[in-house]
Amino acid sequence: MTRRKKQFHAVPPQPHLMDTLNHADRLAIIGPPRSGKTTLAKLLERTRCDPFVIHTDDLIDKMEWSSLSTHVVEECAGRARFLVEGVRVVHALRKGLEVDLVVEMRDPLVPLSEGQRRMQLAGYTVRDDWLTTMPVEDIPPLITMTGQPRETGRRAK
Q1: Which of 43, 63, 46, 35 shows the shortest CA–CA distance to 120?
Q2: Model-level pTM?
Q3: DSSP 3-state assignment of 112?
């Protein structure tokens, strides 16, 4: 059986926003499950020249959740340019991941399962904690993107 490659059918952000995202050397994309983080990252991978990209969802089965954010911080430390995205990235920011720009995908685009809703709320709590405990002058620029939920044939479990 041949596996089909996952297709990303997304409308890219406006050109001026894409320019901003492409020029940030150390870029983090955060947000709740199913909000478009990976889709945006895949679009950016086509236009950025990043030698290093981490999709934290790819690491979920390879390590403990508690060590994943520390792993991200360690892997990105000292790199001049990277793109990192996923639900756990906000935890890495709280643990000291240094970035030039954070993009927050604010809204899930499809209905979430109960577990995904809990993950969403936990992520918002960690984000708020990170923003309120970090010195104001150290907070990187934050771009918030909101989306309209869309109907889908997939149902949350």
Answers
A1: 35
A2: 0.85
A3: coil
